[in-house]
Amino acid sequence: MAALVLAGAGLGAAATSAAAAPAAAACPTGWGSGDKGTVGSSIIPLTNVRAGQHECYDRLVFDVPGGGSEIGHYVGYVDEFHQLASGKQIPVAGGAILEVRVAAPSYDPHGGGAVYPGRAGQPLPGVDVSGYTTFRDTRFGASFEGETQIGLGVRARLPFRVIQLPDRLVVDVAHSWTSTG
Q1: pTM (2 decimals)?
Q2: Mean pLDDT of 121-127
Q3: Tens of pLDDT along 75-109?
């Protein structure tokens, strides 16, 4: 009988601890999955691409120092990722592919060579998305006529947003359509 009372007391303590746990933050999900973009062109080159993980989304950041807060871009889901100009298909791992085009060349437009060292069909230099909740793969497409193209493999077609910040463009892809952190 004493063992049964102690076991019951332990269950009550566990239930109390679970109830006292802080509530998870609600994650934004109203971004949608439709194409997003703005017109713009620049001769200011892309210098870096980096990735980060957040509680509700995975993030890809494109650094364009001197690009201001109006960096032209296009972001949208595609069935297959095809390189600009050549049309060559580049395989991208994941359940869905986001094509990201940034109006900033990866090369010095004044003839100084590559500024961001991406190579067609290869993973993005310095960007490792292994272990991410949503991101599965990154592929450099091309840098052609002042526009740099990236293929972003994601787990599934999920809502995403694009944020313009001074000197960078941010692409966030939610972990799910309806979730908490």
Answers
A1: 0.83
A2: 96
A3: 999 999 999 989 999 999 999 999 999 999 999 88
- What topology is assigned to 37-174 in CATH? Immunoglobulin-like (2.60.40)
Q: Where are the domains of the chain?
A: 37-174
pLDDT in tens, 46-59: 999 999 999 999 99
Q: Is the distance from CB of 123 to CB of 65 less than 8 angstroms? A: no
DSSP per position, 27-89: PP-TT-SS-EEE----SSPP-EEEEEE-SSEEEEEEE-TT-TT---EEEEEESS-B-TTT--B
In which element (H, E) is residue 116 found? none
CA distance 142 to 84: 6
